[in-house]
Amino acid sequence: MANDKKMGIIIAGLGKVSVEWIGPVVESDNVELVALVDISEEAAKATIQNFKLGDIPYFTSLDEAFANVQAEGLIDLTPPHLRLPNAQKAFDAGLSVLAEKPLSDTLDKAEALVKLVDEAGKVYMIGQNYRYGHIIQTAKKFLDTGKLGQIGSISGWFYKTIDLPGFHASLSDVLLQDMSIHHFDLMRFFLDANPKSIFAHSYNVPYSWHKGNANVSASIQFENDVVVTYQGSWATTGQETQWNGNWRIDCEKGVLTIIDNVITVEYFQGLENHPTDRVLNVLEPKGDHRGKRNYLVQEFYDAVRNGKPAKTVASDNLHSIRMVFDAIESSRTGTMIQRG
Predict the structure, then answer these.
(1) What count of other Cβ atoms lies within 10 Å of the Cβ of residue 188?
(2) Cβ(154)–Cβ(228) under 8 Å?
(3) 277 has a pLDDT exceeding 80
(4) DSSP H or E run through 219
(5) How far apart are CA 96 and CA 243, in angstroms?
(6) For residue 290, what pLDDT band results from cuts at 50, 70 and 90?
(7) DSSP 152-217
C-alpha cells in the first residue's frame, strides 16, 4: 500500500546556505519540514520568522530532535567535519540523509562515511547541485546525442570576486575545498568517467584578500584519456564568470561551449568534414527553471520512498571529493597524483 503522507524532513545547520534549502523543501508536494536544528536558538527563531514557518519545533542538537520528532530524512547543512558523526546519529534513528557538499573535511573521513552508508543500507546523497541546472542538463543532453562525436578535450575556467564568512575563512585551499568540487563534478558528469591523474597548483595572487589559496590551475586526465584543463579564482578583480563557469568541449565533429551560461554548438552537418559544411546553433536551455535544489529534494524523496537510485550518492561523490584532495596533494608535493 502506497504511503500518501508527506516525508518528514529535519534541517540541521541554519547558516547562510540554509536559505537555499528551506524554500525547495517548503515548496515540495512530497516532503514536509518538521523541525529545525541549530546550536543557536537565535538562528532558529530568525529562520522561522523569515520563512513564516509558524510553530515548527526547533532544537539545539540532533539527539534532541530525533527523540522528539518523527522524520524520514535529514538535510545536513552543518560544517563538513560533522558529516560523519551526524550520519551515524541519523542512521541510528532510522533516517536517510541529504547533505550539503562536501562529503567531509578530509578524505579519510569521506571514505569512512561511504563505508558507514554501505553498512547502514540507508540513502546518503550529497547536494552536488550544479549538474541539475537546466543549462548543464541541456548541454549534457546534446553531447549525448552523438552529433559531436567523441570528446577530445575540455577546458574550463571560473572567476569570481567573493569574501567568505565562517569556517570557510580558515580553509587552506579555499577555492578547491569549497567551490572547485562543483566544477570537478561537472567534468565527471560531462565525460561519464572518473579521473586517473591530476597535476595542480593551488596558490594566491599577491593582492588576494583570502587567507587560504584562492586560485588554482589544474590538468586532469580521465580514464577515457580525455584531458581537462581548469583555471579558477576567487580573487579576481573583474570580468567574472557565471557560477557554472565557462566551458569549451572539443569533439571530433564539432565544439560545444558554455560562455556566460549561453550554450553554443558548431558541428559538421554533412558526410565530409568540410570547413564550409557546418551548423552553428545557440541552444535554448530546457528543463525546470525553479532551482537545482528542487531537483535534489525530489530525487531524495524518490530514493527514500520509492527506492529509485539517486545520482549523487556518497559512493559516487567520493570520486569528486578525491579530485579536490588529490589537487591539494599535487600542489603541495609538486607531483602528479595517479588514481587507478
Answers:
(1) 21
(2) yes
(3) no
(4) strand 215-222
(5) 29
(6) low
(7) EEEEEEEE-B----GGGGG-TTHIIIIIIHHHHHHHHHHHT--EEEEEEEEE--TT---SS--EEE
CA dihedral 187, 82, 297, 29 (to 10 degrees): -170
Short-list 44, 40, 47, CA closest to 26: 47
Q: What is the pLDDT of residues 119-174, one digit of tens each?
A: 999 999 999 889 988 999 999 999 999 999 999 999 999 999 998 767 777 789 99
pLDDT at position 270: 63
Residue-wise pLDDT tens digits, 13-47: 999 899 999 999 999 999 999 999 999 999 999 99
Smallest CA-to-CA distance from 318 within 109, 161, 157 is with 109
In this prediction, residue 3 carries a pLDDT of: 62
* Distance of alpha carbon 104 from the chain centroid: 13
Report how far residue 186's alpha carbon sits from residue 128's, in angstroms, rounded to the nearest whole number.
Answer: 9
User: What average pLDDT does this structure show over 185-210?
Assistant: 97
Task: Measure the CA–CA gap between 217 and 242, rounded to whole angstroms.
Answer: 18
Q: Which domains does the chain have, with CATH numbers?
A: 7-122 (3.40.50.720), 133-288+321-338 (3.30.360.10)
Point out which residues pair with 248 in neighbouring strands: 155, 257
Q: Are 276 and 8 in contact (CB under 8 A)?
A: no
The three cell numbers of residue 94 are 532510522
d(Cα 237, Cα 235) in Å, to the nearest integer?
7
- Determine whether 339 is exposed, middle or buried from the number of CB atoms within 10 Å of its CB (0-12, 13-18, 19+): middle
Q: Give CA–CA dist 172/163, Å, rounded.
A: 15
